[in-house]
User: Which sequence fits this backbone?
């Protein structure tokens, strides 16, 4: 993926990793459009980054995604990068969970169906460009789950699988498919405490390392900073079971 001269749409671009990516790509001279549900955080981000644009949409709503894709296609016919970043992460106690499953269902719709629907809606536009990219944001937890957040981890594992299939099906088109797998990063994904957790990677460091990988290895398909590699390669390293236990015991403490 080239890192400048693009028109980039980033979902969940008003906060956390989405905002970090938006500001980094904006500084590199790209036209950046951020999207999300909360107008206030989008306005705060665009006010801090003159020239950045914002659109609201509901990633959980099928019709909202369709209308949003129509708007994006009309306003930004040169769009050539889609970054599916929007997501939610909720703790679920499976021993006391009711059969309503509100958190689990919202997580599946937001983290999995939302990116699939938006990609499908914008793929005709992306395929019409000379060069395009779809970036799916998964997680290190796609490869080794945090038991506290079972549905989140399951959706990220599904995103990893989906990205592989999408990449294969698009191999003879101008569309490159990337997967960005973040480690535990200092954002507010699970609340304000995460942004101060010393166990988490500072957001600015994660963004800087991610951009460096994209710059130095433009043909890479899986973007993994050093901090996520223990999760990514636990199974291949032959110590998955012990790492899983140690990791979950540590994160539960």
Assistant:
């Amino acid at each position: 993926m080239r890192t400048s001269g693009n028109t980039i749409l980033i979902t969940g671009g008003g906060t956390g990793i989405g905002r970090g990516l938006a500001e980094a790509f904006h500084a590199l001279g790209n036209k950046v459009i951020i999207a999300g549900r909360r107008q206030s955080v989008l306005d705060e981000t665009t006010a801090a980054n003159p020239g950045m644009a914002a659109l609201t949409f509901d990633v959980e709503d099928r019709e909202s995604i369709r209308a949003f894709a129509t708007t994006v296609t009309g306003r930004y016919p040169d769009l050539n990068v889609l970054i599916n970043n929007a997501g939610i992460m909720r703790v679920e106690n499976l021993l006391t969970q009711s059969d309503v499953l509100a958190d689990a269902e919202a997580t599946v719709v937001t983290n999995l169906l939302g990116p699939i629907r938006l990609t499908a809606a914008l793929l005709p536009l992306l395929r019409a460009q000379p060069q395009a990219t779809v970036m799916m944001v998964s997680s290190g937890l796609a490869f080794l789950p945090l038991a506290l957040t079972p549905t989140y981890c399951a959706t990220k594992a599904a995103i990893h699988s989906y990205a592989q299939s999408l990449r294969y099906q698009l191999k003879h088109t101008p569309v490159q498919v990337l997967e960005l797998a973040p480690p535990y990063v200092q954002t507010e994904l699970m609340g304000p405490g995460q942004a101060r957790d010393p166990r988490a990677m500072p957001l600015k460091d994660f963004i800087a390392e991610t951009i460096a990988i994209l710059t130095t290895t433009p043909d890479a398909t899986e973007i993994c900073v050093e901090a996520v590699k223990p999760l990514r390669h636990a199974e291949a390293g032959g110590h998955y079971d012990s790492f899983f236990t140690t990791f979950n015991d540590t994160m539960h403490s």
User: Anything to note?
Assistant: The mean pLDDT is 96. The first strand starts at residue 7 and ends at 11. The first helix runs from residue 16 to 27. The domain at 7-228 is CATH 3.40.50.720 (Rossmann fold).
